[in-house]
Amino acid sequence: MIFVWGRKPVYTHAGYVADYCPVCRAARAFTVQRIGMAWHVYYVTVSKGELAGYQRTCCDCGMVLPMEVGHYSHLSPEQLPLVQLEQATNPHLSIRHADALAAAARLREAPLMLDESERRRQIDAALRLQADALEVYDATVRLDREVWWSIAGAFAFCAVVLAALKQQAPENLDNGFIIAFFLGLGAVGWQLSQMGERFLRREILPKLARSLAPLQPRPAEIDEAFERLREQGRKLAQRIDSARVQQAIADLRN
Ligand SMILES: [Zn+2]
Questions:
Q1: What parts of the sequence cross the membrane (predicted)?
Q2: What is the CA(150)–ligand 1 centre distance, in A?
Q3: Higher pLDDT, 77 or 118
Q4: What spacing in Å lies between the alpha carbon of 59 and ligand 1's midpoint?
Q5: 167: buried, middle or exposed (CB in 10 Å: 19+, 13-18, 0-12)?
Q6: What pLDDT score does 46 carry?
Q7: CA dihedral 32, 249, 137, 62 (to 10 degrees)
Q8: Rounded to the nearest whole angstrom, what is the distance from the C-alpha of residue 28 to the centroid of ligand 1?
Q9: Distance of alpha carbon 67 from its chain centroid, rounded?
Q10: Domain ranges across the chain
């Protein structure tokens, strides 16, 4: 019997703050999660774990970003309207993010009037943000719902096969069960192999599209940005291409 144990991150809700969201390109409300490292047995934990840090998740677009709790006056226990949340948790937001807010305002007013170097800088920043998110995702073992369902399904399938064989053909019990077990394992393996692609489709591409759409980037600009990302050896450049990003931006408009 395989005994699975170790430490894993446990995320618990810790409150709300206001901050700048680079995907929304605006001030936004964020939920705050405390990250604890807790001991688990078969991925079941009983404690919140030892404090390892905090992260914030944009209430609008779902972007997850690292955070330093000390930068906020406090964490609000409730989600206040944005202006009040800003006053209560991050009163210096507009000063701290003055450059980003000014760039976002310029972008809203005249996206195609930005000079080439600023456009390049903003496209690169949007790609880098998602390249970071992908690398954080790759570094943590987390199973998505399809994988959990396939594990549950494989167990149920083996149990049903076992019960049927016992009743109908007990002489084939061993062989039948081995076949059912490997079919179940195959299904779980298939879902595991698709997990990375689902993360790209659900999490990375929509956010990338959202942060790039206001720039109305030309295909050539995205191509060149991907080329720079590839030169830096970032995984994102190997996993998606410029055509998929353009498609995601087009999907956003529809
Ligand atoms: Zn956002």
A1: 147-165, 177-193
A2: 32
A3: 77
A4: 7
A5: exposed
A6: 76
A7: 10
A8: 7
A9: 15
A10: 1-109, 112-254
Segment 173-220, tens digit of pLDDT: 888 889 999 999 999 999 888 888 999 999 999 999 999 999 999 999
Give the distance (Å) from ligand 1 centre to CA of residue 169: 58
208 C-alpha vs ligand 1 centroid, how far in Å? Answer: 11
Cα of 100 from ligand 1 centre, angstroms:
14
Identity of residue 232: Q
Grade residue 1 by pLDDT with cuts at 50, 70 and 90: low
**Distance from the CA of 131 to the center of ligand 1, in angstroms?**
16
Kindly report, residue by residue over 64-78, the tens digit of the pLDDT. Answer: 999 999 999 999 999
C-alpha of 176 from chain center: 40
Distance 48 CA to ligand 1 centre (A): 27
Element (H, E) at 126: helix 116-139
Which residue type sits at 30?
A: F
The closest of 22, 40, 33 to 125, measured between CA atoms, is: 22
